[in-house]
User: Fold this.
Amino acid sequence: MSDNQPSAEKQSYDFAEIEARWLPYWEKAGTFVVDEDDPRPKKYVLDMFPYPSGDLHMGHAEAFAMGDVIARYERMRGNNVLHPIGWDSFGLPAENAAIKNNAHPAEWTYRNIETQAASFKRYGLSMDWTRRLHTSDPEYYRWTQWLFLQLHRRGLAYRKDAPVNWCPSCQTVLANEQVVDGGCDRCGTAVTKKSLNQWYFKITDYADRLLDDMDQLEGAWPERVLAMQRNWIGRSTGASVRFQVEDAEPIEVFTTRPDTLYGVTFMVVAADAPLAMELVTEAQREELEAYRERLKSVSEIERQSADREKTGVLLGRHAVHPLTGESIPIWASDYVLADYGTGAVMGVPAHDQRDLDFALTMGLPVNVVVDTGEEHPAVSGTATAGEGTAVNSPKWEGLPKQEAIARAVQVLEESGAGEATVNYRLRDWLVSRQRFWGAPIPIIHCPDCGEVPVPEDQLPVALPTEAKGEDLAPKGTSPLGGMSEWVTADCPACGGAATRDTDTMDTFVDSSWYYLRYLDPTSADQAFPTEAANRWMPVDQYVGGVEHAILHLLYSRFFTKVLYDIGLVNFTEPFKALLNQGQVLNGGKAMSKSLGNGVDLAEQLDAHGVDAVRVAMVFAGPPEDDIDWQDMSPAGSAKFLARAWRVAQDVTSSPGTDPASGAAGLRAAAHRTVADAEQLIADQKFNVVVARLMELVNAARKEIDSGAGPADPAVREAAEVTAQLLSLVAPYTAEDMWAMLGHEPSVANSTWPQVDESLLVQDTVTAVVQVKGKLRDKLEVAPDISEDELEAAALALPKIQRYIAEDGGVRKVIVRAPKLVNVVTG
RNA sequence: GCCCGAAUGGCGGAAUUGGUAGACGCGCUCGACUCAAAAUCGAGUACCUCACGGUGUGUGGGUUCGAGUCCCACUUCGGGCACCA
Assistant:
């Protein structure tokens, strides 16, 4: 290793030279390649894989710096660490670039991947590059298709006609989760509704498990992510109630407030649901059709606005109240959602604000059936939805809310008019897309046999490689549909002429299982090896942005549960712990081209060095907080790194020197730093780890310059500890220090320093003396001082005696030996 | 509207279980070295007060010998969901 040792004469810290020395070394030595047969405990540390949009940016730099701290720490702690990298490489931007440049999306995609890969390597991440994967490789999406077929086989992938979210700009459908504030989450265009036949995954079958299994994640996932998922799944308990209808099928509704049943004065069905057309009388048909026509021009953003004026059409038909036999008018309105519950609701205007707004607009009666002590809703305009006592409700008169609900359910069940029900906000996952650059859905449509899965041995259904430019332009139907040679296929069942399904899968399908593919990314026999999955999974630490709090994480959790049910894995949650790193802002705002406040990562790396940028990222604040580039100082970080490096350079003792005889103060500082770092890393306070390291470097500097001198064994010990701890954040500098100190590379594979507990025991501790809770004096005492001794010493202090005399004597003394005495006077 | 989270010097942020508020860094001031500069090293830096001392962790209350930390009410900011019956 003599090649790697800097020459003996003093040089100055040169990050470029240090980077040039170690980057090729790690690659050549395979420092971070995982040994599957390593018997040590496993740790799977995973960063959310990037989308290849141009080069890496500041956000990547932060997130991957955090993940690498954890991976490197776990490695030095004696674990066999799997820390892989790959690319989420299907998706729209590649397709748009291809249309613009008259090229195939693969060109843009793989060029960007190479750029990013080179940047990731330069960034010094402790990745196992041999496991690299790309979701757009046929070798990968073959298995995405295979998984689709497994879901299909179990009835979890199905097609239905339904109103779907449609982005007029991207010319494709969107999942519910991809509609943000009524707009497309990619381009922001207002989403419209369109009735289409589309593929869905039946995630709703897993709603309960997705909720209940969150118990496993409690404490290890950010609370807000768990809250968002709970909210998204939105379980509400209540009752189904059936209302008989004159000359038609009964209408079933869902309600969370069956106790308000006596307050029903009307019913409403979703105007855009087929049910409305079924119920409408001939006399009202024309009016309903006109209303439905008007609704088509209303954007989702408008429609979702809660304070919008209520509109609706009377259907001319009446339902029968199941308890009173009263006749109830049925309306159609757009304030009722077609795809939640049954698409119909019972209107209880007194106790539901939306129903009240509707009733007041249409002049419908408002009957109070829960006495909450508030003003009559018809007068106040505010529905009373809170706690209260049932009134005008013969079968549960006088009961408080919760009891009334229970009683109402019982009454409904006895009368056969309804039963207790659970409803979810979660909808099935719409997975088909009318775009080119994704995994084709492996289904063949046969005029005789219908929907036929592509046989597994014929996977992958590969994308055409010659398509380019205008071939890929969005047309409202999949571009694949225009490639007739590709579309034509023989039916696998009957051999007759048939056509391929021309839609591709949502890219979130690709990313729902990639963490399993890393376990054997090149396998041509299986999606992933079950044995290795059960050994490596679940991921011990997942790191990524909070923007995936719902979509990707929910889908991955769903996939894992499906795989568990199929018997392919023996765990039910994919990610044991989750760290959401914050964003890198500039001037309080997210960096963006339109604001012109972007900071180029490569320029910063050139100017300050990789390590300085990484230290700046980690030191700027707690990992989960947003950090602002304006508040950061990569130059300051570089200064610290140079300081640390010089400490190692100044060490004159030989490697292997016994530290026992070294300066006691510095030894204690070094061991205290290691002990603190362990706790701080467990608490994910990486910024404080850096602060502690700065203190240690300062202490070592002082010892060298004005203490025991550079030859003191404690200086070597401190330098070694610094190199090891620093390697979590600044791998290049640390590696160079480690080599200067005469050790074999790599510091990344060195053993985490052992804390000598006896060095942490201090000779004296500072006891604070308070009078009535205010700090008045301090005492240096032995750590094992008795309470009586400490009290006596404190009371004997002249300053304290003065306060006692002034304040009228001692009333009480609280002693917490050896840290504190509080004298209560008066 | 509902659900989460946050608020500490000029700035980013520290502060196991309630027990020295402001670690560490940035910035700023001064000094050493230098012909000079850079780099480096050292000292100082919450606020008020000449000082003794006093005041201080978004606001107002409370619990406690003692509160940044616990409880109640509120304010502001950030995030999520939202006509989900």
In short: Residues 686-706 of chain A form the longest helix (21 residues). The CA atoms of residues 787 and 817 of chain A lie 5 Å apart. The first strand of chain A starts at residue 42 and ends at 47.
